[in-house]
Amino acid sequence: MEQTFEVFHPRGKIASIVISTLIVIVAIGALIASSIVNIDGDGVGIVKKRFGGGKLPDGRILAVKGENGVQAQTLSPGLHLFYWPWQYEVTKEKMVQVKEGFVGIIQAQDGRSLPENTVYAPEWEDPDKMINAAYFLGEGNGYKGPQVTVLTPGAYRINTTLFKVTPAPVVTVKTGMVSVIKSNVGEVPTDSNDRLVEVGQRGIWRTAKTEGQYYMNTNAYEVTEVSIRQTKVSYTQETEQGEGENQPLSPIDVRTSDGFTFPVDVRITYKIEAEDAPGVVAMIGDDEFVLNKLVTPRVRSTFRDNAEKVKALGYVQSRSEQGNQSATMLKEELAQHGVTVLEISIGNVGDEESLGELLKTQMDREIAVQEQETFEEQQRAAEKKKELSKTVQEAEEEMRLATAIYDVNVAEQDKLKVLIEAEAEAEMITMVAEAKAAAYQKISEVLGANNAALLELMKLVSTEHIDITPTVMVSGSSSSGMTDALMGTILKGMVNSEDPVLKKAPVPTP
Known about the structure:
Elements: H1 10-33, E1 37-39, E2 43-49, E3 62-63, E4 69-75, E5 78-80, E6 88-94, E7 96-98, E8 102-108, H2 127-130, H3 133-137, E9 145-151, E10 154-156, E11 163-169, E12 171-173, E13 177-183, E14 196-197, E15 203-205, E16 212-214, E17 221-227, E18 231-235, E19 245-249, E20 252-255, E21 261-271, H4 277-283, H5 287-307, H6 312-317, H7 319-335, E22 340-349, H8 352-447, H9 449-464, H10 481-496, H11 500-504
Parallel strand pairs: 3-4, 14-15, 18-19
Antiparallel strand pairs: 1-5, 2-4, 2-6, 7-10, 8-9, 8-11, 12-16, 13-15, 13-17, 18-21, 20-21, 21-22
Helix pairs in contact: 5-7, 8-9
């Protein structure tokens, strides 16, 4: 019988050990690999423990201390070990994105019960701590239910099992508008009868939000937009273009004391100041309520009430007065509700159907009155013309009389002047003659009378260019005959002279 012997090979045993070790390592690696969870950079891992952690407290849906169930702590981006698939279920979620122009309104699915008489959880000072589920349910003692705090635009790693996020538009207050806030959260004011409260209290805030963007929970804070621009309303069939809101409504039908009913076109311009907007919202509501529930009813009733006090014709004739009266009343009344009236005017009053016959009668009457007034005016003009003609004639007569009196005065003055001049001339001649006579007398005393006469005669011959050729015939043999002839000739020349002085001068005695 043949006997077989096994040959021991040490290398084979080593190889077997190595292989077994490798198999174990691979198995362990595979096992460990199965516990690895990879979270992408834009994701978040939500972990659910199947066993090994104990039961959750009653009423809780998230585990804070490692209990079984969905864990509050989430997995951040990267690799995470030892999340064995048989013990843990990891759900990969995308980060919560809040787009520009929106806010994220948060609803917490777990947490403490809300305080009594509250609907929304108080606002968090640090929103980043709030969205940390472990902190929210643990140290933060967060409240279950709607949160006042909102997420502003951005990306957030949130445990979506705890927080449900709903996008909502931001509160945008445009130019020419304000937003009145009614808060459903905050401290309840001590005076419950006060329509307006301070910012942060529960109720309508007395300070409105002006132009800008506000990140608010529009469920916790009700926002009412109010225009602070001029609003123009036309109660007329016509449509006008202009600044501000122009809203055409039907004309206002009025009834006067004499039973006439006719339409009146009314235009009103008003505005609400920013500081008055909260009070307007508290008492009335938004812009539509202001127009439909306040302005329009007041305008119609005011014009109708005033029309009942006058007759139709009087209303037509005093249109501007009616407008001013109604404007005064409306300004006072609407101001009590925070509405400022800027302008009120009346356009067309009545139409052919309602006032045609009345206006025609009035027109005929007016024409007759105008004709009468024209005739009376012409009469007055004729009387004025007559009075003017009489006045002109009297003025002309007075002018002629004044001229005659003036002429008489001038003549009297001329006469007086002539007399004065004659008297002056006579006095002058007399004075000259007396002076000459005195001079001659002196000369006569010195030279003798004959020589003095002869000297004067020679002066006259020289100064007056007198012709001394004798023209007087003298007869006789007297020695003075020549002298006499010469004197005669000189005297004749003096008589014929134009010089008044020579004419009037005394003739020297020979």
